[in-house]
Amino acid sequence: MLEGIKVVDFSNYLPGPYATMRLAELGAEIIKIEAPGGDPARSLDVQLEGTGIVFLANNHRKKSMTLNLKTIEGRDIAKKLIAEADAVLESFRPGVMRKLGLDYDSVAEMNPGLVYCSLTGYGNSGKQQHFGSHDLNYMALSGMLAQLKDSDGKPIHPSHTMADYIGGVAASERILAGLVSRGVNGKGSYHCIAITDVMTSMMGNHLVMNQAAGVTNGVDVLSGSIINYAIYETKDHRFIALAALEEKFWRNFCQAADKAEWMGYYNAKTTDEIYTEVEKLFQSKLFSEWISFSETVDCCMTPILEIDELAQFSYFKDRESIVDVNNIQHAKSFADREGASSTPPPLKGEHTEMIIKQVLGKELNLGLLREKGII
User: What are the angstrom distances between the C-alpha of 241 and each of 225, 311, 321?
Assistant: First the structure.
């Protein structure tokens, strides 16, 4: 879908790389610009065969070029790349690209059709714009983290960086919108994504519910307060999600469970006596038995899977949405796109020579460029 679209990616770590990987899976050519030392994610935390898993998980189907943007020569090469690009993504703090002479205003004149996206934590205005920030900050400020509490009301520390990923989705969406707009009016555009704003926009139900009823946990029936939309423990201490929100699905569940007498308790509260009966039913069968039940009865029931169970679970096997690329497991962004994850993450600077020759159109002494610290 995006074949022929070239994106120059100046981002590191997770949100930006995830955004461009989504574009890559749609066919775009992604040129990942890394400092000579590489994207810090390459050496971050846990590693697989010497490369950080955060890098491996978010950089499939890309080309890697090392380039020292602190040098004049490096910035000149970057400008030549941008001049031929359809889009740019960067995730530095506001003002950094301007200091380098690579901000939108500086490069738009040489490429009027360029779609340029800055992915930030707090945007490019306001007193917090220059502050450092990470996923937990966006979750906290947006009100999202306050929705994940234990029985004592204490926010639970997530083991998933949801805001980083959702911010990446928002960035790829905005780049696509910019490309569509360019197709209509022929003009490029600048976009600045604040991940905090993206996360806050997902609190729409909660904001209006708070305004209307003074509650802080959003739509009540979605918060675990009714028996037909809740999480249940099984006999072997695993968990099942029952989301029979519509009455027809609750009826299907009751009939299949041989509990027709429960049909009248649709939307009953988890504080009612019937809830204890439903709990006992779930605790009477094994996790595997409820999986079999969920695969034969149309009642919006699914097992709560652990990460090491995904690849072998029937849903993912049927859709071939989790694939092995050079011994690296990868979950496709678009499972309906064949070949979407056909190449593994690139080695650091793997495509530097090829890209420089393409851009500059002449032979260069790469050894000298490396000696001078340009690549």
Answer: 13, 19, 22
DSSP per-residue codes, 48-87: ETTEEHHHHHS-TTEEEEE--TTSHHHHHHHHHHHHT-SE
The pLDDT value given to residue 366: 77
In a domain, 32, yes or no: yes
Q: Do 46 and 106 sit in the same domain of this protein?
A: yes
Give me 349's structure tokens.
Answer: 């600077």
Say what the pLDDT of residue 369 is: 85
What is the structure's pLDDT at 340?
53
- Which pLDDT does position 234 carry in this prediction? 98
Instruction: State the CB neighbour count (10 A cutoff) for residue 11.
Output: 26
Which residue, 227, 228, 240, 229, is CA-closest to 292? 240
Q: Which of 284, 235, 232 is nearest to 258 (CA)?
A: 284
Same domain as 138, residue 35: yes
The reply to whether 104 and 67 lie within a common domain is: yes
> Is residue 206 assigned to a domain?
no
Q: Contact, 14 vs 134, CB < 8 A?
A: no
Residue-range definition of the domain harbouring residue 300: 220-309
Domain contains 214: no
93 and 178 assigned to the same domain: yes
Express each pLDDT in 33-43 by its tens digit: 999 999 999 99
Please list the residues that pair with 32 across neighbouring strands.
Answer: 9, 64
The rounded distance, in Å, linking the Cα atoms of 83 and 302 is 49
Specify whether 259 is located in the same domain as 178: no
Cα Rg, the chain, nearest whole Å: 25
CB 301 within 8 A of CB 294: yes
Q: Is there a single domain that holds both residue 196 and residue 226?
A: no
Residue 269: C-alpha distances to residues 6, 229, 260 (Å): 53, 10, 18
Task: Specify the CATH number for the domain of residue 356.
Answer: 3.40.50.10540
Which sign, positive or negative, has the C-alpha torsion 202, 232, 136, 214?
positive
Residues of the chain falling short of pLDDT 70: 338-342, 362-363
Name the DSSP letter for residue 115.
Answer: E
What global pTM score does this model have?
Answer: 0.93
Query: Does the residue 320 lie in any domain?
Result: no
82 and 182 housed in the same domain = yes
